[in-house]
Design brief:
Layout: H1 11-16, H2 25-35, E1 43-44, H3 46-53, H4 57-69, E2 73-75, E3 82-84, H5 86-98, H6 101-116, E4 119-126, E5 129-137, E6 151-153, H7 158-165, H8 169-178, H9 187-204, E7 207-210, E8 217-225, E9 231-240, H10 244-265
Antiparallel strand pairs: 1-3, 2-3, 4-5, 4-9, 5-6, 7-8, 8-9
Helix pairs in contact: 3-4, 6-10, 7-9
Length: about 270
């Protein structure tokens, strides 16, 4: 189960790449503005964007003006706020259409969704989130209102745990340090849980989140690795009232096989 976490300052990436002469800071700032918009916040004012990105207000004004001129942002109807424009949607549709890996594994995702009555998601890492790129919905009564394009904070989602568990130990520790802001007051417990998940992944091929964020919610997830051994995709399934034994013994192994199939396709 995931909760909405505040967006991290856009300047963190800029600080890391300040010594990289190939890195265009102005472009990165424009992309940071676009990332502020999501299903929960479809419309934003420039003041809100400035707060979320930690960029100066005049800079945000100029970035938003430029993005409007290019069609990536548009004025929301009957409002002084902005929303995503068709230019962004066009890029997203092209990206989804050009990547057919999700279509290859969708039938198996649908089968798992029917078996559990829950939702099965395939995602990729984008900044500090898991971005859903493919989703199959079961017919259970209590499903999260997520769809393709929705985001799950890495620290508070089973998909995020699978990604972290698949990283080498040093990279995992670095990522956990960066994600402290997503779990105020629970970081120590999260770190222990993720380290345990990494051990589980090494022996079973999947991670299991048993009621960590809600006692009635169990979830399993598995990372798919690229040829260099880095987690590239994550597949996950979870929801309320799913028995732990069923998730461990049946759904977890299914997701692990599905993830290995993604490696073949990639």
């Amino acid at each position: 189960m995931a909760t909405t976490a505040p967006k991290k300052a856009a300047t963190s990436r800029s600080a890391k790449t300040a010594v990289d002469r190939q890195f265009v800071t102005a472009l990165a700032r424009g992309m940071a503005v676009l990332r502020c918009f999501d299903a929960i916040r479809p419309q934003l004012g420039t003041t809100e964007i400035a707060q979320m990105t930690k960029l100066p207000q005049p800079t945000v004004w100029r970035l938003c003006y430029t993005l409007q001129q290019l069609g990536y942002l548009v004025q929301a109807p009957d409002s002084d706020k902005l929303r995503i424009g068709m230019a962004v949607l066009g890029l997203g549709q092209y990206a989804l259409a050009s990547g057919d890996i999700g279509e290859m594994v969708l039938p198996e995702m649908v089968q798992i969704a029917k078996l559990t009555g829950a939702a099965v998601s395939m995602g990729i890492v984008d900044q500090d989130d898991i971005l859903i790129v493919k989703r199959a919905q079961g017919d259970g009564p209590l499903l999260m209102n997520l769809s393709v394009g929705s985001r799950l904070p890495i620290a508070v989602s089973s998909a995020g745990w699978a990604y972290l568990a698949g990283l080498p130990a040093h990279a995992r520790d670095e990522a956990l340090q960066k994600l402290k802001y997503q779990v105020p007051g629970k970081w120590t417990a999260l770190r222990a849980a993720v380290e345990s998940a990494a051990s589980t992944l090494a022996t079973t091929g999947f991670v299991f989140n048993e009621g960590f964020y809600h006692p009635d919610v169990n979830a399993v997830a598995a990372p798919a690795f690229d040829k260099a051994g880095k987690p590239q995709y994550v597949v996950s399934c979870g929801g309320p009232n799913l028995k732990a034994k069923f998730m461990r013994e049946d759904i977890g192994p299914r997701l692990s096989r599905l993830a290995r199939g993604l490696l073949v396709f990639s």
